[in-house]
Structure formats: C-alpha cells, structure tokens
Write a structure and sequence with these properties.
This is DUF2974 domain-containing protein. The structure is a single chain. By secondary structure, this protein is α/β, with parallel strands linked by helices. The chain is built from ten helices and twelve strands. A hairpin with a 5-residue loop joins strand 3 (about 45-55) and strand 4. The radius of gyration is 18 Å and the shape is globular.
Length: about 325
Amino acid sequence: MTKPSTSDFLAAADAAYSGHPASTSGLSVLTGPRGGPVEATKAADGFHGVALETASGQVIIAFEGTALSDLQTRPTFVQAQLAGDAAIAKGQDAAAYADALRFANRAVAAAEAQGIAPSDIFVDGHSSGGAQAEYVAVKTGLAGDTFGAPGIPAADMNTGVRSHLTNFVDYGDPVGNYSDNPDRIGNLLMGDGIERYGRPTYVGQASDARSLAAADRLYGTSPVGSAAAAGLVVQGIVNHHQIGAYAADLGVTLPGGNEAGGSQLTAADIRSAVSAITGTSGPATGGVGNVLTGLGLDAPVGSSSIESLLGAGAHPHGHFG
C-alpha cells in the first residue's frame, strides 16, 4: 500500500477547516453519485468532514478539528466542538465520532463507486479531527495520518484490528501527548482511559517535552506552581499544537502558509475554550480543569494572569483542537 504524501495529508487536514479551500492544495473534493461534493456538516455536534482526491487518484477523508478562532463567526458550531473536546478530555466519546463514521462509510461508498480501491482510501485529521480519524480507523481498518490527536477512549479500541495510522505528535504538544502510555502528564489529566490508536511518530525538538514534564511536576505544589503549570500547558498549545506547527516540524508549507490561513489565536480565545471545556457538565475536578481554573481562565478579559504569562497579544495558528 502506497500512502499519499505527508504534504497531501497535511493539506487535507488543513482543508477540512472551514475557509481553507482544497483547490489551493492540489487536492479536489470528491464528487458523489449525484454530482455533488462528498462533504458533510452537523453543526449540533461540531462535525465537518470532506473527502478529497489527490492528483494520483487516492482519497483522503479529512475531519475538522476545533476551529477556536471561529468562535465569534460560527458560535453554535464551535461551542459544540468545545463540548466534544470536554468529552474527549474526560475519556468519553465526542458526539462527532458517530458522525465521522457515518460520513466515512458514505465517502468510501462514493469512492468505490468510481472504481477507487479500498486500499487507496485514507482517513486524516488534526487534533480532535485526528481523534475522529482514529475512531473511524478502529471501526473500519482504514489507514491514514493524524496530527496532534488526543486519543480515544480505551473502550473504543478493537484489539483485533491492527492500526495502519501514522500518528504525528510534537514533543511539546499537550493535546497530542494526552494519550501517552505511560503517562508523562498524569497529574494534568482530567480523565484516564484514553489511548492512542497506533504508535506515535514524534516530531519537533525532543527538548520541548521538558515543558510538559515541568508542568506536570509544578501542578498542585502551590497556587503559584499551578499557575505556572497552566502557563506551560497553554504555551504548549500555542507553540506546538497548531496545524501550522506540525507543518513546520515536517518541513511542509501549507497552501495558505503555516499561519493557518491568517487565523490568530489570542489568550482570550484560549481562556474561552478552556472555560467551555472545564465548565461542560459542571465544574471539572482535578487535572487540567483545576490547573486552568486556578489560573483564572473564567475571569473577565484582562483580569487573568494568563496575559502576564503569555502576553495579551495575538498568537498564530487559530485551530485549537
């Protein structure tokens, strides 16, 4: 089996985000039996998927991760994504997982109807989109790539299906390392029982893992230590989790540049996201929930110490999860 290039997988994962047209990446949206694009959105679950065809005639089924920078323009959709992120953080299935499997089955049928072999159909996604790709891969046996995927619940694993995924994980990415086994950030976890489907392929600088280890050690030592731990976690998200960071790690330039199409991630964006995640279904207990709540991420803009830790200005790469 010859997989598409890493460049194609990154371009497809990027194209899955709204506003990132596949046409600029050398990919084209697969056409369905009725002539329309093979693409689906379910706003209530924060789900969006698209089937893309490479220049060599292979198909990449790509799933959108959490588009945090779109919180103001697509509030219902992004809030549903954040609810899914909360479920993932607690080791539960996001609602979008079932949507992803239904869409993947539809995309596979559309591809096969055009004579594309199952061995030329792949799954793909960044962050929570990568988690959806993992879930679909478990259920279908499809191969593919993920970038910064947090993992899926252990209960979803099918030990009888061998993983054919390449899971790229930046050493300093707290999301991609959420499913480490053995855990390197056990004190920061909101829930256990989450696993990566397949082995990790680490990218970036190995020394960046020290920040996550430091955050894990600092959490719970004192209010100042917990605040510093939270700062390191958020810094890891900003610097190592965004899809543009993965592109840079792998020597790839995304079609719109590695600034994720000009999206800007601010400290306020992160505060809104974390408040939504830790506040879903009641207050979080322990782990990242307490670390970031202790930092004051649910406080009004300007009052949280996150600005003093990271600076109040905008940061590149607006795709959070």
